[in-house]
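I would like you to sit down with the record closing this message with an eye to the fold:
=====
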Amino acid sequence: MNHLKNNSGFTLVEVLIAALIVVAGLIAYVMTSGNIMGQNAQSKKKTVAITLAQDKMEAIRNIALTVSLGGADGLASPTESGGAWTANAGGEIVDVDGNTGTTDAIYTRTWTITEDATLTNFYTTSVTVLWDSTQTISLDTLISQ
């Protein structure tokens, strides 16, 4: 019998252990990638919600330049037309561009305008945006007139 003196190469056990380590690494990579992609999607929705809230706040500030906010005090999501304020219960359902009535509208935007109790001619304005049924962002500010 001729025995090999130089046994070079890998044994089956070594190959199986190496394969197991590679598979474990790939599984960890796939799980991490999926988690990151989900977080990126939520981050994008939150960024859009903040922008929608800022847009509404800016629209209210612009209205306040020419129309008294006093008529909006206590109304749910008040809208102004010709100097008169009307309640808009439930706010508005908007898409990422702030357009209403589209099939992509997944954000519910509501707002309130209330006269400040301590400061004369100041109004506390609050805008809230809801998405995915549970996620919300709110912005609050004082507007003087």
